[in-house]
Write a structure and sequence with these properties.
Blueprint lengths: L2 H18 L22 H10 L3 E4 L5 H9 L5 E3 L13 E3 L6 H6 L2 E4 L3 E3 L4 E4 L9 H4 L3 E6 L4 E2 L2 H7 L7 E3 L4 E3 L5 E3 L6 E6 L1
Parallel strand pairs: 1-12, 2-3, 2-4, 4-7, 5-8, 7-12
Antiparallel strand pairs: 5-6, 6-9, 10-11
Length: 204
């Protein structure tokens, strides 16, 4: 008997046994929290969870964003931005706008990228990008080694289902939980493997 014949024989016996006593259907509980967020989210919990992922968290007013960006990157740094970021975010910052579309080489040569986000999730410290307003295309936040992300407090939700409820399905989604990192078989953490090595989160 070949391996194929043996496999067929075993599967045939399993089918015969199941035909005599059909298995009972299994009911999988789906009791997720699906209600939308009502009231303000736990911003402090979000900040703590983001920091646990080795991201740097800053509480900032809109008028202070540009100054903090210059402080984080250096006065001579070049910062990539989507074309629709607010002007007050980049006052006095040396920017490289993604309009016309920048090449991968230009993105790689930049010192940092500055974007907004779609949603922040307090329970997991996750930031979600959907290529919407102030975020630009996905490559902007995957190629440069330093990502500065502005999160408004009204974009923060408490739990993951609330985050999905706030997101659409027509855009590509990028979930960020701290700087890009991985661990090899020796559990040696390596950062910057498939995304930015440094993540600064500015809670607006």
């Amino acid at each position: 008997m070949t391996g194929t014949d043996g496999r067929a024989a075993v599967l045939g016996r399993i089918r015969s046994a199941l035909a005599a006593v059909p298995p009972q259907p299994v009911t999988v509980p789906r009791e997720y929290h699906r209600e939308p967020l009502s009231g303000p989210a736990d911003v402090e919990r979000f900040a703590e969870a983001v920091a646990e992922y080795r991201a740097r968290v800053h509480r900032v007013a809109a008028s202070d964003i540009a100054g903090l960006v210059r402080e984080l990157t250096g006065s001579d740094a070049t910062v990539v931005v989507p074309p629709d970021v607010p002007a007050e975010w980049i006052t006095g910052v040396r920017i490289l706008s993604d309009d016309p579309v920048l090449t991968v080489e230009q993105l790689d040569a930049a010192d940092a990228v500055l974007t907004g986000c779609a949603v922040g999730i307090a329970a997991t410290g996750t930031i979600v990008l959907d290529a919407g307003a102030t975020q630009g295309r996905r490559a902007l936040t995957l190629v440069p080694d330093h990502h500065i992300c502005v999160v408004r407090t009204d974009q923060i939700v408490d739990i993951v289902p609330q985050g999905f409820a706030a997101l659409g399905t027509e855009r590509p989604l990028t979930f960020i939980s701290g700087p890009s990192a991985t661990s090899d078989i020796e559990l040696e953490r390596v950062e910057g493997v498939h995304g930015p090595r440094t993540l600064d989160v500015l809670i607006l």
